[in-house]
């Protein structure tokens, strides 16, 4: 099998004349860490078969002896073809995952984007610079049935400020979910889109209900996006554990506590980032094209 370079946007394959392929350092943890950082792949741990080709090293790091290239003991890859405004925290999606971009319009069908290698969501998604640009949506359940007939929880989370909106649901009704999403958007404004990990058919019904019944405007959903690291999942689990029979009654207080408490990542309160420092609500949908959304190596 050919040797492939693991660097972003590099097409080199070996064997290739005048191009060397080098393994990641094994006995030098500090230098290995610098290699990984410079590659800018998020949560990526190179395996024994991963290589970096010689074009990513400065000449001072390469020794050419007997038609074979070797690296100096302090060699670190520093030359890459990253796009402008590329940030270190780039989201890597496994090759088996498929993303679906759902545009809430009357005549446009869902666009399926198949990922055959490593694909990255472009800076419009990963470089979140303000509150309420991208939200994560999830539904937890079925949970213990409450006297009010609730069995599910709908959560909407702002990726930047970590602000959470949560609603108890009696069932997984697309109409009920659409109503709550429309209420949140009416209050806080339009984000670029909502990242969800719900079924495609259900999400399509939600977007149709939002369009026909509430907003009458286009809107963006991205499916199969795993945002399980967000706080609401833990919040719901703790809530059901502490209040198994009336968790729906205690839900507003739990959400209030979460939004007014310092977040471990941002070191600030979600309320401060969204309501005190956040931008003015956007009253119309934000434009988002497929060409801007996806890039690949």
TrEMBL record:
It comes from the Eukaryota. GO terms for molecular function: DNA-binding transcription factor activity; sequence-specific DNA binding; zinc ion binding. Residues 1-80 form the THAP-type domain. GO terms for cellular component: nucleoplasm. Pfam families: THAP (PF05485). Gene3D superfamilies: Ribonuclease H-like superfamily/Ribonuclease H (3.30.420.10). Keywords: Cell cycle, Coiled coil, DNA-binding, Metal-binding, Nucleus, Transcription, Transcription regulation, Zinc, Zinc-finger. GO terms for biological process: endothelial cell proliferation. The keyword Zinc applies. It is found in: Nucleus, Nucleoplasm. Belongs to the THAP1 family. DNA-binding transcription regulator that regulates endothelial cell proliferation and G1/S cell-cycle progression. Specifically binds the 5'-[AT]NTNN[GT]GGCA[AGT]-3' core DNA sequence and acts by modulating expression of pRB-E2F cell-cycle target genes. This is THAP domain-containing protein 1.
């Amino acid at each position: 099998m050919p040797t492939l370079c693991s660097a972003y946007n590099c097409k080199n394959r070996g064997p290739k004349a005048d191009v060397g392929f080098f393994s990641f350092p094994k006995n030098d943890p500090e230098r290995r860490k610098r290699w990984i950082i410079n590659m800018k792949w998020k949560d990526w741990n190179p395996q024994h078969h991963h290589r970096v080709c010689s074009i990513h090293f400065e000449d001072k790091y390469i020794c050419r002896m007997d038609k074979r290239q070797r690296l100096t003991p302090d060699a670190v890859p520093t030359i890459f073809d990253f796009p402008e405004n590329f940030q270190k925290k780039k989201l890597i999606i496994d090759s088996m995952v498929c993303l679906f971009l759902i545009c809430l319009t009357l005549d446009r069908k869902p666009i399926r984007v198949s990922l055959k290698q490593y694909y990255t969501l472009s800076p419009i998604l990963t470089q979140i610079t303000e509150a309420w640009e991208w939200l994560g949506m999830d539904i937890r359940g079925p949970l213990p049935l409450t006297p009010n007939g609730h069995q599910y929880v709908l959560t909407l989370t702002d990726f930047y400020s970590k602000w959470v909106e949560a609603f108890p649901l009696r069932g997984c009704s697309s109409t009920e979910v659409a109503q709550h999403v429309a209420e949140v958007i009416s209050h806080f404004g339009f984000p670029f889109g909502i990242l969800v990990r719900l079924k495609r058919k259900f999400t399509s019904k939600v977007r149709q209900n939002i369009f026909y019944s509430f907003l009458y405007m286009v809107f963006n959903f991205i499916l199969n996006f795993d945002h399980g690291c967000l706080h609401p999942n833990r919040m719901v689990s703790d809530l059901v554990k502490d209040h198994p029979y009336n968790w729906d009654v205690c839900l507003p207080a739990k959400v209030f506590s979460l939004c007014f408490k310092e977040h471990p990542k941002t070191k600030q309160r979600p309320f401060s980032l969204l309501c005190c420092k956040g931008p003015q609500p956007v009253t119309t949908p934000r434009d988002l094209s497929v060409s801007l959304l996806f890039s690949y190596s």
